[in-house]
Design a protein that fits this description.
about 500 residues, alpha/beta, 11-stranded mixed β-sheet, 4-stranded mixed β-sheet, 18 strands, GH3 auxin-responsive promoter, acid-amino acid ligase activity, GH3, GH3_C
C-alpha cells in the first residue's frame, strides 16, 4: 500500500476545500499594487512616478498611461545595462541573484534577463500551485511516491558581477527545495554536466536505477532523451524501463506537433500537462484534464496586459507601437489573439515577452499560446499564426499516417513570386506533391486570409522533407542543445537562406 502517496494525495485534495473563490481581476490588481509599492524607490519607479500611480483610484489605467512598452532591447539599453553591470535599485530593489540567459528561437546572442530572489520564489510558488492542481487529475496514490525526471539546461551556473547566470530551467533546478531532492532526477551531479550529449548519455546509463513517474521538459529534447534510453537498453518503448511513468509536463512550445512521435516512444498512454515557464517567469499551467488550455498564474508576482494582435500595432521587428491599446484581464474577450505584456518581481516593466495568446475561458483565466509576434506569417497577407501552422502539420500526420515532430517555413521570393516554402522533419517517404496539395487545401479551408492571398500575391507552396535530426543539429550549431532552445517555426528570408545552406551540407 502506498502509505506516503496516500498522505500526499490527501493533502493535495484537502487544499481544494480551503481554496477561496477565484477572482483573476482582483488578484491582478493586488499584484500590480505590490509591484509598484515594492519598486517605487528604484530609479525606474521614481522616473515613472510609481508613488503617484499608487495614490490613484484608476491605478491600472494610470500605469498604462505613464509607463511605456519595452521589448528586451529597449529595456536593456535604457535600464538593464546598469543592472547587468551590477548596479543596485535600478528596476527592482537591490540587485538580482541570477540572470537567465536566453537566445530563444531568434538568434545566437544571449539575452541576460534579471531573475531576482522574489522571482525564484514566485516560480517555486507557481510550481506548488501546479502540484496542488493534480487533485483534478485521476492519478493513483503511488504516483506521488515516484521520481520526477526534470530535463532542462545545466545547473552549472556561471558567476558574473556577483550574480549567477544560466538558462531558467537550470536556475530553477539549482533551487529545488531540500525536501524534493530525493524525488528529483537526474540528480545534482548529472544535472551539472554542461554538454548535452554527455548528460543524456549519463541519464541513459543510470535509467534502470530510477523509478520515474513523471517527466518535465521541452518536447523535442525530451524525445531525444527517451530515444537514447530506449536505444541504450535495447527496449521497445520507455515503459519497459520506467513502468510507472504516468505524467509528462510539457513546456516551452506547443505539444501538438510532437504528440504523435512522442506517443510512439510509450508503451501505454500517459497524462500530458502543459505549462508556460519562460525566462521571465512562470506564466501559466494546465489546471484540469478536460482542456488543453492553461490557467494564468494571476496571484504570483506577474501582472499581465493584453494588446490586440493587429497589424497596425506591430512593428516590423515584432515590437509594439507605443500608442497600441492594452487591456487588463477584466477587459479581454474570447477568440481574440493578444500580444502578452508583463510586469514582474524581477524588474520587467510592461515587457513584451514575444508570445501571442488567446483566451479560451475568461472566468477561469485559461489561455492558449497562439504564436510569436516575430513568427506571424503575413508577408503577403496570409495572416497565419503558429497555431494554424501547427494545425496544418497535425493534419498531414493524420492524413498520411506519418510523424512530423519538426518543421519550419518561410514566405520566400523566388523569381519575383512569393511561395510558402516548407521543410518538414519526417522519416517517412511521402510524395511531396501530395504534401503540397494537402497543406494548401487545409490552410485555404482553415484561414480565409490565406485563401485570399493564394488568389493574389502568394503563388503557391513548396515542400521539402528532411530527417528530424537535421533540425536538432541546426539548433545545436546555432545555440546549444537541450534546455530552453526551440526551433524557429517561421524564418525571414536571410535566415532561411542560412537554413537551406545548412540542410544542403547535411544531405
Amino acid at each position: 500500500m502506498a502509505i506516503i502517496g496516500n498522505i500526499i494525495k490527501g493533502i493535495i485534495h484537502a487544499s481544494e476545500i480551503i481554496s477561496s473563490e477565484f477572482d483573476a481581476a482582483e488578484e491582478q490588481r493586488e499584484v500590480l499594487k505590490d509591484l509598484l509599492e515594492t519598486a517605487k524607490n528604484t530609479e525606474f519607479g521614481k522616473a515613472y512616478q510609481f508613488e503617484e500611480i499608487l495614490k490613484s483610484d484608476t491605478m491600472e489605467r494610470d500605469f498604462r498611461a505613464k509607463v511605456p512598452f519595452h521589448d528586451y532591447n529597449q529595456i536593456t539599453e535604457q535600464w538593464w545595462e546598469k543592472v547587468q553591470a551590477g548596479e543596485k535599485d535600478i528596476t527592482w530593489p537591490d540587485s538580482p541573484d541570477y540572470f537567465a540567459l536566453s537566445s530563444g528561437t531568434t538568434g545566437k546572442t544571449n539575452k541576460r534577463i534579471p531573475v531576482t530572489d522574489a522571482m525564484v520564489k514566485a516560480i517555486r510558488n507557481a510550481g506548488i500551485q501546479q502540484v496542488l492542481a493534480l487533485r483534478n487529475f485521476d492519478l493513483p496514490a503511488d504516483f506521488y511516491e515516484k521520481e520526477i525526471m526534470m530535463l532542462g539546461s545545466s545547473t552549472d551556473l556561471e558567476e558574473h558581477n556577483d550574480a549567477l547566470e544560466g538558462e531558467i530551467s537550470g536556475i530553477s533546478a539549482s533551487n529545488i527545495p531540500f525536501w524534493f531532492q530525493n524525488y528529483y532526477k537526474p540528480g545534482k551531479e548529472i544535472a551539472q554536466i554542461d554538454d548535452w550529449d554527455k548528460r543524456v548519455q549519463r541519464i541513459a546509463e543510470n535509467a534502470a536505477n530510477w523509478d520515474i513517474g513523471a517527466l518535465s521538459g521541452i518536447p523535442s529534447w525530451m524525445e531525444l532523451m527517451l530515444q537514447k534510453v530506449i536505444d541504450y537498453h535495447g527496449l521497445n518503448n520507455i515503459h519497459e524501463i520506467w513502468p510507472n511513468l504516468q505524467v509528462y509536463t510539457s513546456g516551452g512550445v506547443a505539444f501538438g506537433p510532437y504528440k504523435r512521435s512522442f506517443n510512439a516512444l510509450l508503451g501505454k498512454p500517459i497524462t500530458v500537462i502543459d505549462t508556460y515557464l519562460a525566462s521571465e517567469g512562470f506564466m501559466a499551467f494546465q489546471e484540469r484534464p478536460d482542456t488543453d488550455a492553461m490557467k494564468l498564474v494571476t496571484n504570483n508576482g506577474v501582472y499581465f496586459e493584453f494588446v490586440p494582435f493587429k497589424p497596425e500595432y506591430i512593428q516590423a521587428d515584432g515590437s509594439l507601437v507605443q500608442d497600441a491599446p492594452s487591456l487588463s484581464i477584466s477587459e479581454v474577450e474570447l477568440n481574440q489573439d493578444y500580444v502578452l505584456v508583463i510586469s514582474t518581481v524581477a524588474g520587467s516593466w510592461r515587457y513584451l515577452i514575444g508570445d501571442t495568446i488567446e483566451f479560451t475561458d475568461i472566468k477561469r483565466a485559461e489561455i492558449k499560446i497562439t504564436g510569436r509576434t516575430k513568427f506571424f506569417l503575413n508577408t503577403v497577407g496570409s495572416q497565419l499564426s503558429v497555431n494554424k501552422l501547427n494545425d496544418a502539420v497535425q493534419h498531414l500526420e493524420k492524413e498520411f499516417d506519418i510523424e512530423i515532430p519538426e518543421y519550419t517555413l518561410c514566405a520566400n521570393r523566388i523569381n519575383d513570386d512569393f511561395y510558402h516554402c516548407w521543410y518538414l522533419g519526417t522519416e517517412s517517404n511521402i510524395e511531396t506533391d501530395k504534401l503540397v496539395n494537402a497543406l494548401d487545401e487545409f490552410l485555404k479551408n482553415a484561414n480565409k486570409n490565406y485563401k485570399v492571398a493564394r488568389s493574389k500575391a502568394l503563388e503557391g507552396v513548396k515542400v521539402n522533407t528532411v530527417s528530424p535530426s537535421v533540425f536538432h543539429d541546426w539548433s545545436g550549431s546555432n545555440k546549444k542543445k537541450g534546455g530552453q532552445v526551440k526551433m524557429e517555426r517561421v524564418m525571414g528570408q536571410d535566415k532561411f537562406a542560412e537554413w537551406e545552406d545548412f540542410v544542403a551540407s547535411k544531405l
